Amino acid sequence: MKKGKVLCVYSPKGGVGKSIISANIAGSSYLIGKRTLLIDADLYDGGLSLFVNEEIKKNIYTLSNDIKNNKYESILDYVYNYNEGLDILCSTKIQLEASLIKEKYMDKIIEDAKNIYDFIVIDTNSSYNDFNENIFNLCDEVLLILTNDIVNIKNMKNVITMFNDIGIYKYKVLYNSAFDFKDQYFSYEEMIDIIGANIDYTILREGFFKNITGYLFNNKIPILYKNNDVQYYSLLNKCNLIINDME
Description:
By secondary structure, this protein is α/β, with parallel strands linked by helices. The chain is 40% helix and 17% strand.
């Protein structure tokens, strides 16, 4: 059986649109007919909970705890059904529980997900730690989210240097200029030179949804609510390109 592809979305700085991009890529995967799972591995912030419209009783912690106690049977028992082809494995809201989720449980979660889903998107937090590094090694590709921000660019350079040092080469860089609310510090070419890697995808300011907070407050993944405008088609095409490049 062909196993599902796994994409990890990461940035060394928060507030760059990482969770929204993760959700939109997962939504685009669903729209092209792939059975899709969105995993919230941002254990201490849980940004993907914005897209869940009810109280969650089972999450990534309860799944991990059941693996530990030999009570686990299927990942399908722990996911939130967003729609008929898109599921979300939510994070816990309790920090103590988050600290108990170990790397070895993610190995089992991701492996089982690959046997059920065609495409898995994992949203992570901005820390560079053993937990996230384990996910980087387990996935098929890491999508690094860059903005024109001094802190993000500096941290991104360090991450790419570490990736190259430890042999992680399956990464691509997405420049999200839609989240550059202030003046841009560097040119496109200067950012490439500083981080030491190509920029593979770019989301322009005019290529992102307007009133994004309106979607979040209504638990809506934006890409699943069609707008006949340039924002919709630009973002959809970009997400589909990311997915197709992994085939």
